[in-house]
Amino acid sequence: MDIRVGAGRFVSKCRLRFGDGFVWQAAIRSRLLRRRGGDMADALIEAALAARQHAYARYSKFLVGAAIRCERGVIHAGCNVENAAYPQGVCAEAGAISSMILSGSRQIEEVVIAGGGTGPCTPCGGCRQKIREFAGPDVRIRIVDPDGRTLLVRSLAELLPDSFGPESLG
User: Fold this and answer.
1) Annotated catalytic residue, options 71, 93, 109, 133
2) Are 154 and 141 in contact, with CB atoms under 8 Å apart?
3) What is the DSSP letter of 122?
4) Could you give the C-alpha distances from 155 to 6, 22, 61, 84, 159, in angstroms and in order?
5) Strand 108-114 and strand 140-144: pairing?
6) pTM, whole model, 2 decimals?
7) How far is CA 111 from CA 32, 122, 152, 158, in A?
């Protein structure tokens, strides 16, 4: 299935092949918006929930999906991928950021994270710093439950106060 994406124009074209490694250069924005008839925020939630369903959480059984909207308005999603050597797993946020970088974008405008359970699944410390590399302190991060209900909304500055970012290096 070919999907064209972009904000008002076609930015890229990719072939989504579930299960073979290039699953989510998650450029599903236009399809989601048409299906839901909603705005960008709805599409971010949908993308995070869809990515969550593809998580590889064989050991913890804790599925996580993340979706980010970049400066071009394109949505990129990722899911957690566990490994038998526990510290070698990949967080959903890191996967979404990698997809964004692969597409040529460099700025995160908004983040949605979909976890399991009744409590909010906030980004780990490492992912907060990864988000900070590509986002300013005012970027909104929403945490939703498996049904897409918002559990928590924070700015990056609230999740990572007094952060060290690219501008700290001069």
Assistant:
1) 93
2) yes
3) P
4) 25, 30, 28, 33, 7
5) parallel
6) 0.79
7) 16, 11, 12, 14
Specify the residue for token string 């439950």. Answer: 145
Instruction: Tell me if residue 93 is catalytic.
Output: yes
What are the structure tokens assigned to 73, written together? 């308005």
Distance CA 29, CA 33 (A): 6
- Phi and psi torsions of 58, nearest 5°: -60, -30
CB 114 within 8 A of CB 49: yes
Decide: helix, strand or coil at residue 170: coil
Counting every residue written for the chain, the total comes to: 170
**Tens digits of residue pLDDT in 110-163:** 999 999 988 999 999 999 999 999 999 999 999 999 999 999 999 999 999 999
8 Å CB contact between 23 and 50: no
| Distance in angstroms (rounded) separating the CA atoms of residues 80 and 51 | 9
pLDDT tens by residue, 4-40: 333 333 333 333 333 333 333 444 444 444 444 455 5
Cβ-contact 109, 70 below 8 angstroms: yes
Query: How far apart are alpha carbons 60 and 159 in whole angstroms?
Result: 24
